[in-house]
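Researcher: Here's a chain I'd like modeled. Treat it as a single chain, no partners, no ligands.
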Amino acid sequence: RVFDLAQPYFAGMPHHPTHPPFLYGMVKKHGDLVSAGGISAAADAIALGCHVGTHIDALCHFSCGGKLFGGVKAQPSQSDTGGIKKYSVDTIAPFFRRGVLLDVATHLGGKALPTDFAITPGHLEAVAKAQRVKIEPGDVVLLRTGWARYWKDAGRYISGSRGVAVSGPGPEIAGARWLSECGVVAVGSVTVAFERLPDPEMPVHVHLLVESGIHIIEALNLQELARERIYEFVFVAAPLKIIGATGSPIRPLALV
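Model: Modeled as a single isolated chain. C-alpha cells:
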C-alpha cells in the first residue's frame, strides 16, 4: 500500500511569511492556438519559495556564528545566483529508509495539539512505548500534531489561534536532542516550521541542521497514516536537484 504524505499546492495555500508564496497561472489555454486536425495544448507556470509546501531543509538552510554543519564557513560558499555550494539540496541522496510515525496528537487524546504546545522527550518516549515502536539509527521520524487539518485555512495553519506571528506546536530543544540522540537522519512534522513557535532563535533548527546534520521535513500530511494506525513503513522521498538551493519541495510516500 502506498500512502501520499504531501500536501496539495494551490493559490492562497499556507506559507511561512519569510518565504515567497506559491503562484500559479495558465500561460496557454486550449483554443489559444489550434493546429491542423483541431489539436490544442494547454500549459501553465508556477513560482514558489524552496521552503513552501511539503519540503525538506538542506543542511545549508541554517548557520550559527557564520558556520554551517561541520564548522564549514557559510560566507565564502554562497552567492545570489549560485546559491550555497556546500550542503545544498541537490547533494541530498533520495530517501529509501525506515520511517516511524509518532502520533502525539492522538496519544494525548485530541484531534490537534494546542498552538503553544511543546513536545517533550517524555511525550516522545510515551508515544513510542504506546505504539510499540523503537527509534533506530538511520530512521526518518515523523511527528503528528494534527495541524494538517488546517491546511486549507492559511491563517489558522500559520498563526494558530493567536492570529499573530507564526505560531504552532512542536518540539523544543530537549525534544530535538532526544531525536538526535536516537541517530535519526531526518525528522518531519505537519507544521510549517517543525519546532514550537514563536521562538526567534529557532534553537531546534540550529541543533538539527547545524549541530547534528539532520534534515528537517515540514508541512507533511500524516492524517491517513494516523487513521490506519500505521507507525512503521518505508519512507521514500527525493528533493529536486536545484543546484545551490537551501531546500526543495518533495513528494514523500510511505510504503507499507
